[in-house]
Amino acid sequence: MLKRALTWQFFFLLFCSSTVIALEDDVLAMRPLFTKYSRRSITSTEFGEITAVEISDGSTGGTYQLQFITLEPNSLFLPVLLHEDMMFYVLTGSGSLNWVDEEGVTNQIDVKRGDVFRIPSASFFFAKSSLESTRERLRIFAIFDNANNAHELSVGAYSRLSDLVLGFDWKILQSAFKVSPEMIEEIKSAAKLPAILHVPSKNETEQTKWQARIIKALMGSGSYELNKKKKTKIFNFLKAKRDVENANGWSVTVNKKDLKGSSFGAFMVNLSKDSMMAPHWNPMATEIAIVTHGEGIVSIVCSSSTYESSSDCKNMRFKVQEGDVFVVPQFHPMAQMSFSNDSLVFMGFSTMAKKNYPQFLAGKNSVLQTLDRDILALSMNVSNKTIDRLLSSQSESFILSCPSCAEEEEAAMQEEIERERQEEEQRRREEEEARREEEREAREREEERKKEEAKRRQEEERKRQEEEQRRREEREAREKEEERKKEEAKRRQEEEKRQQEEARRRQEEAAKREEQRREEEEAWRKEEKEAREREEKEKQEQEARRRQEEEKRQQEEARKRQEEAAKREQEEARRQEEERQKKQKQQEKEEEEWQEQEEEVRRQEEEARRRQREEAKWEEKEASRQEEERQKKQRQEEEEARRQQEEEARGQEGKRQERQKEEEAGRWHEGQQEEMKAKRQERERQERQRQEEEEEASRRQRQEEDARRQQEQQEEETRRQEGKKQERQKQEEEEEEEEEASARRQQGQQEEEAAKRQEGERQEKHRKEDEEEEEQQQEEEARRQERHRKEDEEEEEEDRRQHEEEVRKEESEEAQRPRGKEEQEARKAEDEDRGRREQPETEEEAARRQEEERQRKQRREEEGDQGYGGGGEGRRALRNIKRIGHYF
């Protein structure tokens, strides 16, 4: 089946590309697909909306507007004046449509799902949706034709009544209606209502009244009553007799006979899963279709031999879904395919209402069947045998079975899109490369020109700069000479000022150092006295502090022991609580496992019931499928018998003279055929009965297998529950053993804690002894360090006085020197700068020297302590000796 469908598609494309003649250039501008997201919104309110698309038929230059009108339950579409004929199809919901034609005749029809009707142009038209229990919206597809009108589509398909009236000036309205200016002003100042409104529910009498008021307002007099309505016949797709119907789908066509006065035709096609409308074309009209259900693939062939080399006209395939609009121009072969997961339903309008029969390429009614086989074989460049096999393979007509055709077409479409995208990218890359090459050459030419221009400007600039440089150098030389003279005079003045300032500063520093020395000596004596008093006081405070700390430490140790005992009790209580919570969690876990087991049993039972339901459904589907196959075989047999009868009739017509002689033989032959047919039917019945018995045995075997598996699962579940029960018992025994071990561990921990407590008390006693000894050593070390610090301070003070004395001596010698020349002053300034740069190194050496002096002094003090017998008197004697030495 799949191979045959692919063969037909290939043949369809090959034949269309070589035989069918296309139309003029305007076909190239036709747009084939309008998705539901590309619709233009005309009006939208909470009670309904209207969207539209503009469509070109691609042949005669005609344009059509397709509108999608949606009314919520109990909503009103306000009156409009139709500019063109309006043909509409009701997709869902129900309601009433009212219009007044050019002769003033009032018309009203009740519409429902599947209705198709036409309202002529120049009619006032309005619609109201019904308030149904299901609250289903009234959805209408309406097409407007302006092909026979002289005005352009830009005028619109219709005009609102309020726009017609309020468009005039107030003076014209006052004269035309003979009313007061206040009334005209009230009308013109009223707010403009939306095109769709909600109307409250009313009874039939009240509805008739407001309809009469609308008609009266439209026609301008009271002579037009609602009783002038005509009885109008409405065509309904869903109730009409279907033109084509088989297992693959059905189709219905509406022509001029059913829609009097309409320039449009209408059609509806329902393709079952894995089906295809056979390749065909419309020789008289363009088809505009809207998908009402499902998804599918539409394949259109650009069959023009005139434009086969043009890139604007090419074969196309595209995917459609519910709400999409697709257009197929006149003479363009097409095929529609449904997917394997859902059916495809679409309705549409043809641009010519008179009878126009589609021409099919495949099936029993193929136009190829009318052509001579030899001519057809030459046209296809194949053998007659291939043509015979091609035309005799398909026994169905119009709607064919085509498994996975839509999926394969979609895959091919995706590959084609990807290939076109790659080609487009390659073309863009080549164009971009050519453009970059042109830009590069243009840049090179421009750069060459700029280089020449820059070189010329550089030469001129160089000459100008050389001249300016020469003038600038001369000017700078003069300025430098003047600046040098000014700097020389300024430097001499600053040097004199600096020397004076330096001499004054040295005198002030000498006086300040002398004053500071006297103050430091006084402070040193005072500090020495205070240090002795402070040392005695610190000793007393340290002794008192030590006693307080000892008492505090004893109290702290007692508190810690109490806290440790309380902590141990809390730890034991917490452990017991954890044991209790653990047991509780274990019990909860066992309850959850038991609930899970019950849930698993319920799930298995539910699964078994579900499998039984699925098997019952499968058996029903299998029975339905077998019944369909039986009916299909029966139809084929009847068709075969009818064809044989026709062949026999033609044979009898061609041999009229031999009919009497062969009449007996013909009857005997017919009897043999009927007997053979009866035998064949009996064999088929027996074969079907045998298949049913085998299927019944297979079904019973599956049920027994499922029952056996379910029993095994229940036994397995019982064993698992028994194992869990034994595991819980074992776990309880382990918990009891763990509690006994815990009690033994607790007793051992208490004995161990008592031993640790005794060991801690012993260590605490030793620690206190060590701390007391360490405190005594620290106090002794602090007294020794304080003594050394004071001696270091005294030596540093003595060194500082000696250094100041040397500085004063140098300053007095320097003041007595005569002032030298400018060169000596310059050298002196350089020496001072060098001294300032070397000052960090000098300070480092001084610090190192002081450290060495301190160490030597410390060694001398140790030796002096040993020589003088230690104590304060020996140290004071040593300091007196040092002072005497410094003095001399």
Please tell me about this protein's structure:
Keywords: Signal. Residues 34-185, 235-388 form the Cupin type-1 domain. Residues 1-22 form the signal peptide. Residues 589-599, 770-779 have a biased composition (Acidic residues). It comes from Nelumbo nucifera (Sacred lotus). The structure is a single chain. The chain is α+β, with helices and mostly antiparallel strands. It is 61% helix and 16% strand. It is built from 11 helices and 26 strands. The protein has helices at residues 2-19, 161-166, 170-177, 181-189, 204-219, 373-380, 384-392, 405-654, 663-816, 822-867, 872-887, and strands spanning 33-34, 40-45, 48-56, 63-71, 75-82, 85-92, 95-100, 106-111, 115-119, 124-129, 138-145, 158-160, 196-198, 235-236, 244-246, 249-254, 265-271, 275-281, 287-293, 295-300, 316-321, 325-328, 334-338, 344-350, 359-360, 399-401. The strands form 4 sheets. Strands 1-22-19-24-17-16-15 form a 7-stranded antiparallel β-sheet, with no helix packed on it. A 7-stranded antiparallel β-sheet has the order 2-3-4-11-6-9-14, with no helix packed on it. A hairpin with a 2-residue loop joins β15 and β16 (249-254). α6 packs across α7. It is extended and about 170 Å long. The relative contact order is 0.05. Residues 1-29, 221-229, 306-310, 866-873 and 881-888 have low confidence and may be disordered.
Task: Give a brief outline of the structure.
The chain has 888 residues and is of the alpha+beta class. The chain contains eleven helices and 26 strands.
C-alpha Rg, in Å?
A: 59 Å
Strand count, sense and barrel status of the largest sheet are:
7 strands, antiparallel
Terminal CA distance: 135 Å
Broad structural category: alpha+beta
Q: Mean pLDDT, as a whole number?
A: 78
Q: Can you give the helix content as a percent range? A: 55-70%
Number of strands: 26
Q: Which consecutive residue ranges, at least 5 long each, have pLDDT under 50?
A: 1-29, 221-229, 306-310, 866-873, 881-888
Number of helices: 11
- Oligomeric state, counting identical vs distinct chains: single chain
Shape: extended
Strand content: 15-25%
In spatial order, strands of the major sheet run 1-22-19-24-17-16-15
Keywords: Signal
Pfam families: Cupin_1
Protein name: Vicilin-like seed storage protein At2g18540
InterPro entries: Cupin_1 (IPR006045), RmlC-like_jellyroll (IPR014710), RmlC_Cupin_sf (IPR011051), Seed_Storage-Functional (IPR050253)
